[in-house]
Backbone:
């Protein structure tokens, strides 16, 4: 097998994987997909069960419905009408939960509630029960005396079982809804989703900053407006390798692009080489860089951090005035930042075989994340001692997970100094300022002790 056919097979495999992930992402956030599948399964199951004959004296006779066809018809009508009422109730409670989370926490959390699997399963169960019962009416007759006493008795028994299951799901949904709108559950879900996006990031080829775009680079224009949701540079690699060019995206995942503006550049190794044609590369970038109307958590770690910050800043607003919730949000951000602290962050650079061709995808570095978090909480929560001490604890957590001598210790040192400056300008009580100064001083001492590996080794020897 030639190298070209091998590359094509590899690219096709990646495209199938990417397409499957995109479909999975859409299905996971669509509230109608799972209930629709459940309704089709219910129709198929109802048809199959209705074909089962239950003669007198058989083993299934004791579980089969023993009423008349008129009794079965009344029962199925009652089940259908009851389940429709329950569906309306569940949808109403879901809308209330969405409204509460949007106004009290963040409108960017609505996507998490729509992707809530238990809610989708409960709605699927209710819709399946309704469809099964309504379809069963055609087997027993819609009017009294419309057919003989021969009807699928076992299928009617299954409708009764589905009714009891639906009643159980009502209780489960009420309990699940009450827990899902609690701030602790919301914070945990956002943290889990963000850490999942971090774990799936490719860290094999990462540089701190993107290279400078040369003057002979050819601009590539965006073909639609929206937010960059995912980027798959490995799909562009065979193209740039064959042409021996470099493609560099202009914006990071999560940033907004506008149609007919520059979304990337392509350039040859030297200005004396033939200039690449923009149209073919624009088509490739449009196919392998997914742009949508909203941000998603698939590759956008900053979006998960943005959700957590929204919860904290909303809690600090005068209308809510809940600094402890903001401190909780920072505690969950500490978990996320500790994951980011030990990973290579920045610009992804993929190089083709034999060093021919590159694909460059800009990304956030550790300082971007830290100053983003510290800047917003320093602006909206600098007057509250609880919030600022939680921010210092987050910096301290990152210091503890970083290896001695890491250059990221300087980033945390600068962030701590900026947090202290914000607190000194905003805190009205001198004792609060003194506690903040003491916390920052202790943190800076710890940072200084870890900046030198030799100092760290001596401290370990004494312990």
Residues:
């Amino acid at each position: 097998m030639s190298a070209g056919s091998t590359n094509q097979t590899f690219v096709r495999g990646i495209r199938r994987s990417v397409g499957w992930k995109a479909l999975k992402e859409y299905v996971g956030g669509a509230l109608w997909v799972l209930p629709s599948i459940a309704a089709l399964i219910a129709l198929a199951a109802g048809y199959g069960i209705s074909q089962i004959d239950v003669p007198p004296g058989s083993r299934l006779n004791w579980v089969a419905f023993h009423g008349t066809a008129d009794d079965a018809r009344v029962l199925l009508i009652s089940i259908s009408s009851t389940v429709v009422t329950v569906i309306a109730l569940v949808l109403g409670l879901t809308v209330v939960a969405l409204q509460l989370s949007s106004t009290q926490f963040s409108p960017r959390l609505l996507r998490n509630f729509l992707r809530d699997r238990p809610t989708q399963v409960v709605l699927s169960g209710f819709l399946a029960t309704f469809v099964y019962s309504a379809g069963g009416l055609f087997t027993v007759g819609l009017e009294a005396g419309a057919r003989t006493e021969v009807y699928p008795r076992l299928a009617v028994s299954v409708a009764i079982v589905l009714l009891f299951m639906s009643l159980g799901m009502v209780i489960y949904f009420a309990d699940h809804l009450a827990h899902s709108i609690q701030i602790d559950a919301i914070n945990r879900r956002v943290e889990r989703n963000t850490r999942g996006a971090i774990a799936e990031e490719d860290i094999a080829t990462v540089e701190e900053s993107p290279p400078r775009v040369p003057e002979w680079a050819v601009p590539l224009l965006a073909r639609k407006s929206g937010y960059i949701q995912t980027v798959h540079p490995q799909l562009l690699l065979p193209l740039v390798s064959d042409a021996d060019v470099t493609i560099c995206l202009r914006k990071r995942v999560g940033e907004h692009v506008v149609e007919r503006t520059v979304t990337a550049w392509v350039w040859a190794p030297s200005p004396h080489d033939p200039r690449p044609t923009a149209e073919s590369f624009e088509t490739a970038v449009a196919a392998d860089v997914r742009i949508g109307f909203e941000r998603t958590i698939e590759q956008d770690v900053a979006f998960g951090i943005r959700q957590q910050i929204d919860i904290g800043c909303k809690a600090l607003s005068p209308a809510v005035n809940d600094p402890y919730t903001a401190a909780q949000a920072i505690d969950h951000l500490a978990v996320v930042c500790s994951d980011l602290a030990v990973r290579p962050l920045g610009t992804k650079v993929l190089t083709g075989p034999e060093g021919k061709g590159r694909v460059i995808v800009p990304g956030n570095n550790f300082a971007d994340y830290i100053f983003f978090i510290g800047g917003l909480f320093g602006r909206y929560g600098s007057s509250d001692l609880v919030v600022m001490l939680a921010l210092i604890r987050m910096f301290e957590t990152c210091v503890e997970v970083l290896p001695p001598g890491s250059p990221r210790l300087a980033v945390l040192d600068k962030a701590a100094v900026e947090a202290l400056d914000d607190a000194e300008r905003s805190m009205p009580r001198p004792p609060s300022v003194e506690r903040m100064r003491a916390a920052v001083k202790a943190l800076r001492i710890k940072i200084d002790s870890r900046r030198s590996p030799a100092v760290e080794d001596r401290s370990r020897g004494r312990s």
Residues 70 and 143 are 8 Å apart (CA to CA).
